[in-house]
Amino acid sequence: MSSHIIQVDVFDLVVFGGTGDLARRKLLPALFYRERDDQLPPESRIVGISRATLNRKAYAALVEAALREHLPAEHIDQAHLERFLGRLHHVRLDVTGDRGWQELTALLSGAEDRVRVFYLATAPGLFGPICAKLADAGLNSRRARVVLEKPIGRDLASARRINDEVGAVFAEDAIFRIDHYLGKETVQNLMALRFANSLFEPLWNHSAIDHVQITVAETIGVEGRGDYYDRAGALRDMVQNHILQLLCLVAMEPPTTLESDAVRDEKLKVLRALQPIAGPAVALKTVRGQYRAGATNGAVVPGYDEELGTGAPSETETFTVLKAEIGNWRWAGVPFYLRTGKRLPRRASEIVIVFRSIPHSIFAPDAGSARPNRLVVRLQPNEGVELLLMIKDPGPGGMRLRAMPLNLSFAEAFRARYPDAYERLLMDVIRGNPTLFMRRDEVEAAWAWVEPILAAWQERHETPKPYAAGTWGPSAAIALIERDGRTWHEDAA
Ligand code: BG6
Questions:
Q1: Does residue 188 sit in helix, strand or coil?
Q2: Which tens digits make up the pLDDT trace of 16-33?
Q3: Which ligand 1 atom is the nearest neighbour of the CA of 229?
Q4: Is 90 a catalytic site residue?
Q5: Is 140 strand, coil or helix?
Q6: For labeling, which of 65, 334, 338, 397 is most exposed (least CB within 10 Å)?
Q7: Strands (DSSP E) found in 256-415
Q8: CA angle, 272 as apex, 270 and 277 as ends, to 5°?
Q9: pLDDT per residue over 433-469, tens digit each?
């Protein structure tokens, strides 16, 4: 990938949850890659915060083990590794108690002019208390920023509470709410596709587009995160944030610039134009599912309840489909079918724009029918863009129509490593660029749309419908789209 790497300002990055899963799997590897590209100034420090008793050496050993576990061996060279490990500090700290705060303050003192980032990779219930403690300790220096990992709350009220508590300490432009989907190269590419090409914009509306499908399918189960996941479910875990953000990028009006508020204002308008799904519409426009035992990736896997292992049957959804509609001129009458689930047949995040059928066919019936054009934006894996076109099947046997993809594979076009979303996002925090982060009003507007669905599921005792692991969810998910005379992309081939 060709990109111009500019060193960021000197920073101190303090990671609450510094020994946790996210830090080990994502944050530290992402920072290491930035080290490899010499993007981190030599004086910058990374401070892991946890309750463990670890001196600097022990923390460095833990981080090295995490890098070795999560990165290919050939990506770790000794010189960069040593430089990276040399930046690490660890403070044993009790986030709600008194232990460790003095030590953290002492470590950071004298560096007030640096960019100071507090990354809260903790449970959302701790965001407010940690910010209050940071204020008490006087650590909110002029260039301090706070990063909040999702989920921001579990409903509108709790999201507002967290936003109020954090907002009491940090100004909105110093609060970076992460939605890691926005940091994915292919998600940013959606903006390039839409706004750096003149081809699509005239067609990007209800007169040319029949409907849109957004799918984020995973083959994994809950992966040891059962505790969190069982309290969240697919709607809170994936739709409220990642999928609605994707929907916004597809549906928003062209912002006047890429400046952060210009983009976020447009996304907010989309969220506010989403038609509420409430009351009886919930039964028609939503599906909840939960996986049972089955097979994915050629392996037999247990059902959700067995994987959780609590002994009690759970009513949490691991799959959901929603039919979302946007009440504005551009999108009137164009449904957005949103689908996500765990233990599905393949890992695939994609956006499919299905264009309208041709208005009249000039071809004889035996030519076959012209299928509607589709633009498929593959976010992961096999990142790329595919445009399904109708062509003449070659040969002397008369006119036969055939659908063929015009396929742009990013892996083939750019033979380079795709940076992880966190690499971009962490550097944006340090640079102070919030374009790819969620503003308070966006998060709250997303909760405001999702909440009536959650409420209706609860009121109607809508238990999730079972589906076998390795299938595309319960049959109701297929019925939902077929009732509208449409099919899911994978069934349309
Ligand atoms: C996280 C969800 O936000 O996104 C997980 O909490 C999910 O449940 C993950 O697995 C998916 O992210 P990615 O980048 O692997 O598509």
A1: helix
A2: 999 999 999 999 999 999
A3: 8
A4: no
A5: coil
A6: 397
A7: 286-292, 294-296, 299-301, 319-324, 336-341, 348-355, 374-380, 384-392, 401-409
A8: 105
A9: 999 999 999 999 999 999 999 999 999 898 999 999 9
